[in-house]
Amino acid sequence: MTDQxxxxxxxxxxxxxxxxxxxxxxxxxxxxxxxxxxxxTDRKLRELGRQLGGLGDKFGSFTEGLALPxxxxxxxxxxxxxxxxxxxxxxxxxxxxELDVLASSDARKEVFVVEVKSHLREEALEQMRKxxxxxxxxxxxxxxKKVFGVIAxxxxxxxxxxxxxxxGFYLASIHDGQFEIQVPEGFQPRAY
Length: 192
Fold this sequence. Notes:
The chain contains three helices and six strands; from the N terminus they run H-E-E-E-H-E-H-E-E. It has helices spanning 3-78, 122-138, 158-166; strands at 83-92, 95-105, 110-119, 146-155, 170-175, 178-181. The protein has a six-stranded mixed beta sheet, with helices on both faces.
């Protein structure tokens, strides 16, 4: 190889290194821009999730507000409850229990726990079972009473309705703008 060929080769390698270095800088800048865009997207997704959660809470509160007058009437007139409280939250031993509606009667020795759902799903059954199983732990003053579950739902598919009743929970559905208890003849509620 001649001196000129060697100089040309070295010059060619130097040009390639400059081009590679420029490409690496450009790639690095693009990666930083992509990283910044991803962070912004993550921030927007978190904000959207927060907003959707808030909307869900508002819709849930709206549904509970819609159900409360009807459930108050049902619990007092049909079941003879003399204490009815919406949105009950009880804490005990570092845990908490939230109830949409709690109703009780000392004279009848009964308690009704109402869970309100805009769209009734299978998960509501497990949620109600869990609430009823832990009820006495949170309300030891109610030990002498039978505890019944009521699920009030705006929209309930037929297969889930059947499961609710088979579990021994009362089912309240909306009819003509008001919630009504809908149980078949021979229905046997399950007391906890």
